[in-house]
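new request in #modeling-help
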Amino acid sequence: MRQQSLLRHAGQRLLGVLPTLLLLITVVFFLMRIAPGGPFDSEKALPPDIQANLEAKYHLDEPLLQQYFRYLGQILVLDFGPSFQYKDWTVNELIAQGFPVSLTIGGFAMLLGFLVGVTVGVLSALRQNTAADYATMGFAMLGVSIPNFVVAPVLILLFAVYAGWLPAGGWDGGWRSAVLPVITLALPVIAYIARLMRGSMIEMLHSNFIRTARAKGLPEWHVILRHALKPALLPVISYMGPATAALITGSVVIERIFAIPGLGSYFVQGALNRDYTLVMGVVIFYGFLIIMLNFIVDMLYSILNPKIRYEER
Amino acid sequence: MAGQLLWLLPLLLLACGGGEDGAPRDRSLSRQPVALVLDADGRPDPSVLAAEQVLHRGNGSEPQTLDPHLAEDVPSANILRDLFEGLTSEAPDGRIVPGVAERWNISRDGLTYTFYLRRDARWSNGDPLLAEDFVWSLRRSADPATASTLSNILLPIAQADAVLAGTEPPEALGVSALDERILQIRLAAPTPYLLSLLAHSSTYPVHRASVERFGDKYPRPGNLVSNGAFVLADWVVRSKVTLQRNREYWNDQATLLEQVIYYPFEDQSTALKQFRAGRLQWTHEVPNNQFQWLREHYAKELVISPWMGSYFLGFNLLREPFIASPQLREALVLAVDRTLLTEKVTQFGEQPSFTLVPPGIGEYVSPLPEYASWTQEERNVAAQALYAAAGYSEADPLRIEIRYNTSENHKKIALAVASMWKQVLGVETTLINEEWKVFLQNRQQKVLTQVFRANWIGDYNDPFSFLEMFRTGHGQNDYGYSNSLYDSLLGQIAAERIPARRRRLMQEAERVLLEEVPIIPIYTYVTKRLVDPHLRGWESNVMDHHYSKNMYLLRSQSVTDAQL
């Protein structure tokens, strides 16, 4: 019975993806066109003939609605079109080259953040209100509040410029060029998850079913790992859905400071250059990831927490 | 756990302070090059060269394209100069030297150029490079279907305007092959700077068979057949572009570098850190805010040299209060203390400027306005008099807007100018900061703007590149400037082929222009970058064009060298 309703819920959620994406595409498409200026405006104004040639080449001379439906047609066959800014590449190629980099760095940062954050959070909860707890949470507070554009240069200076152990930036696909960006990205995640985990763990440890478990004489590690950990993870899981989507689509700051060819910069560069196709491409891609990850979180939720059921009303 | 806090502290101090005396303990400073020894031909002796001839160059940002006819950005142009070669090329000091053409004749009327191509000029795949290749390439560059944004570089060529406008087919362009290796270019008007245009990427030859075969995917590793000293070996988007020495290049025996790697570091602090870590030998720029520090610790590596660009503020002459008010404009120009601006605000060794055309372009010398020789106090007094004569006073001050695009530097300059106006004249200035594309649109529409930030970097090594944008109705004329005398002077300049007379006409034009005060000159640009002392074979030049084919790396001093 529960399996069935879970599946039905999953089906309903997936059906909702399409209208959401369509809405996203429409809003972004028209927002980009409303912005003043166009992709080919530059300091050196173009002769009108050349401007016309360019617009014809990219179909920008057509009525807006026609462009919109042309674009929708392209999306159906997953063709995001050519980039205006990076003229030798299509948006599909740019995403295909940038995403693996962002996925690697963001994925490892999330993994590191999750493992360390949960461990620290649980330990902190178990030693609640001790010096160790305060120190850890103080650190977590620092981690949340020190921005990554401060952490990153300090790490580069220490480990690349003075020590020379790691590259000062750039990306060669090897682990050495990933270490500093992963750590920089993971620090606030660790901090955030540790705080979330500590809070929900403390709450769990004070709840009735844990008291019952202890009263039954179960060993303490058993109580924590088997009974308290699973429900305490719920807030962390719901944080991780959108956070993962954000991390694996790249961070502008990290990419700039470490000179990493990920996806993040395309959001900003694309918007500033009025690179319509590139912005549309990355936004749709990001939107799709967020929707899918939220969906996965939802599913995980109902598996982790038997109290959440999807029943027909 | 509290102990964790303690290990961070010394690290942070180390990071902030550098060494004990504040000097950086960078890896890039630990090595010094050996002294340069030249052989009989004036080339570096093999004994002083580094074993690994690989140059790592910072390039500012990702190249927009490696198709020479579509490129318009500086990063692309830097790479293309290594990959391709035009009929002419540039020496390290910026002089025009023969490229693919080993010599040329210019007809008496200055309208026909005949180029004799090198017999050993080849494409990187071994195909011979012929006059027909140039004919096809120049037609492609001008063809509206190519949609090149810099094709107006070709305008001096006969019929180019009609081809660009689409009224004539590309075949009508005044370019023809007289023989396998003789190329003739006919001009619409004598253009003394034509030879420097022929070193520009819009006029580079492209390999017809490859372009026809690969289309849009021509400029990619494996597809790109080029004719310069290097070939494209690899291109990882926003990571690096790797060039390999081109063994087929006609002058390959003179090339010393085996590989050149361009990095698109956008963040100049990142590039600086890469340089300090010894992983970059040439940066595109340096971070503005670390100039003093660099001057102290990297005096030898920091290279500052004049660049062919002017920074100024423009007046919108189509909008009040600047319609028919030269006195008021003059007052605003006089009240700006340029020396203070460059020494205290921009601080990068920029040269205070009183003219439009920057110094260092050939033998051209800009006509200085009279006030250039005054002290700032004298200028201020004159400014106050003109301001009062224009009908403004303390009780009824001028209220205007300075518009600029979002940037720390522009903001600082606009603020400083506003406060100088306030102090000297009592002008009430509002600063308006706009995103780049919005700013451009407003500037071009000439409806909202009053005073706005402007600048110009020369397209080619000639003052005309600066002067022509003030022609009535010119695409860059965001000032609404229109003067029939000026326009006719520009026409005479275009038709004049005797250099000295042409220079005099250009001086006259610039004098006419400055007298009517459409702009407030502020400073002329400098390039500023870090260069590893191991890297030689380059010179500063106003164009800031640096061909890797001339460069080489010296080896580091060993212990025995140091004792010698």
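bot summary: The CA atoms of residues 9 and 310 of chain A lie 7 Å apart.
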